[in-house]
Design a protein that fits this description.
The chain is of the alpha/beta class. It has one domain: Alkaline Phosphatase, subunit A (3-Layer(aba) Sandwich). It has 14 helices and 12 strands. It has an 8-stranded mixed sheet with strand order 4-3-5-1-6-7-2-8. Helix 8 runs parallel beside helix 10. The protein starts with a helix and ends in a 15-residue tail after the last helix.
Length: 484
């Protein structure tokens, strides 16, 4: 059952089934607003504006036509918390002390919400918590989150004690299919009860209540993160589609780090060596379906901006925290590897009359560059401790210098340039080196190749330079004064 715009409007009016935070105090101000929309686990090539020939993302593509697309945007970790912590602080994971999902961003870290709050902005988050799975908020106030959605589902009879026997059967079948089909199982509840329209309704509610003051709203959609479970009609939208090819090579894991072979044997409890073409097509169909579902409601959110008279002073950013393997190298989900499929993420920045419409930047950029770019656009001081660099010089053409991207876990560091990628593993006799010009899908590891020794040494030297240069800029050494 597909939700209509009228039904969606009624959700906006009647979504008080969940607890709603009171609107922020109203005041008049000419300041620009900031709206960040994040899709969790959305890989960069799964957008029409990024060249995907079959996916339907007309609203996100519209943002790209009206804004700037960064075609080579790389995140600082292929995992949620460290990646989002880098986005919100403009600092690398090994500097902000949030290297994996089991760590929480320290209170001493300055976030975008902290900075904007000091500058008179109302700050809030809607959807999955911004640093999930941790409950840290980084200065954002919760307008609606998972607890609100769960209460909404419970009130609708799809969760808790109010679930009917017939629905319990449907939910049990849904779980059983998920366990058998690599977490690909269509949601049994109707579209209007799904989390994406619920959070979109809450986002629009926030916009309506706070349109007369400067605000920063971060909308976090869990989809298309696994489980791959879109509701109808998005579960059938891509049936029979000829999807872009997944890239893998027979025997390639023999020359890859051993953890990648283990990931084939066990990822999220599944033996990926048993994955059939039918299984993979189902996963892709549902993954694409979740992206298209998000896209529908992203359109409803951004359509509110002109209706509220704030479109011409609202900075809109669309991004993701990391990607999804989706069958490349035989892998599904995310994991402890640094293939482009998981470290390259979409990034679109739209600022009407402030940024050129339809411009595409091909230079390599990093996730930590987003925060200083926002501050630059808002004419707010970029603090010394921020390690990212504003992207405006690239956009306005005053800088064309090449950059490198870095991504990391505590035991591994990646360096990626336009043509090469190196992954260094702590205390390991192995590593990864790819010539991206000749091998764009990272199938042939050249780490031990005698013909690539010079390139490896240059990349290792550049990686070491980055680790030295990326010391916390806020921790200055204290120089001893000379004795009189």
């Amino acid at each position: 059952m597909q939700i209509t715009r009228r039904e969606f409007s009624s959700m906006l009016a009647g979504s008080a089934l969940a607890t709603i935070t009171k609107p922020f105090p109203i005041s008049d101000s000419p300041k620009w607003n900031v709206l960040i929309i994040t899709n969790d686990q959305h890989r960069a090539d799964c957008l029409g504006c990024m060249g995907n020939p079959v996916i339907r993302t007309s609203n996100t593509d519209r943002l790209g036509k009206e804004g700037v697309i960064f075609e080579q945007h790389f995140v600082q970790a292929p995992q949620c918390v460290p990646s989002r912590a880098a986005l919100h602080t403009g600092r690398y994971p090994h500097v902000n002390q949030t290297p994996t999902n089991i760590y929480r961003l320290p209170e001493t870290e300055e976030t975008l919400a902290n900075i904007l709050s000091r500058n008179g902005y109302a700050t809030a988050t809607v959807g999955e918590l911004p640093f999930a799975p941790t409950k840290f908020l980084g200065g954002l106030k919760v307008f609606a989150d998972d607890s609100d959605y769960h209460a909404f589902l419970e009130s609708a009879g799809w969760r808790g004690n109010r679930v009917s026997p017939a629905r319990r059967v449907l939910l049990r079948e849904y779980e059983m299919r998920s366990q058998k089909q690599f977490q690909a199982s269509a949601a049994p509840w109707p579209e209007e009860l799904d989390e994406t329209p619920f959070y979109a309704a809450k986002a629009i509610e926030f916009l309506k209540e706070n349109s007369r003051q400067p605000f920063y709203l971060h909308v976090n959609f869990r989809r298309p993160h696994h489980p791959f479970d879109p509701p109808a009609p998005f579960d059938r939208m891509y049936e029979g589609t000829n999807f872009p090819q997944s890239h893998k090579m027979e025997g390639e894991m023999q020359n890859k780090p051993p953890a990648q072979q283990k990931a084939l044997e066990d990822s999220v409890g599944f033996d990926l060596r048993t994955l059939t073409e039918g299984d993979l097509n189902r996963i892709k169909s549902y993954y694409y379906g979740m992206i298209s579902e998000n896209d529908k409601y992203i359109g409803l959110i951004i359509d509110q901006l002109p209706k509220l008279g704030i479109d011409d002073r609202t900075l809109v950013i669309f991004n993701s925290d990391h990607g999804e393997m989706l069958g490349d190298h035989g892998l599904v989900f995310k994991g402890g590897y640094f293939y482009d499929q998981v470290v390259q993420a979409p990034l679109i920045i739209r600022a009407p009359k402030r940024l050129p419409a339809g411009k595409r930047i091909k230079t390599v950029v990093e996730e930590i560059d987003v925060l200083p770019t926002i501050l630059d656009l808002l004419n707010i001081k970029i603090y010394e401790r921020i390690q990212g660099r504003s992207l405006l010089p690239l956009v306005n053409g005053t800088s064309t210098s090449s950059r490198a991207a870095h991504s990391e876990f505590p035991n591994a560091k990646m360096l990626r340039t336009e043509h090469w990628k190196l992954v260094h593993y702590l205390h390991a006799p192995y590593g990864e080196l790819y010539n991206l010009r000749e091998d764009p899908f990272e199938l042939r590891n050249l780490f031990d190749d005698p013909g690539a020794v010079r390139a490896r040494h240059e990349m290792e030297s550049a990686l070491a330079d980055w680790l030295i240069d990326s010391n916390d800029p806020s921790l200055k050494p204290v120089q001893v004064e000379k004795e009189q």
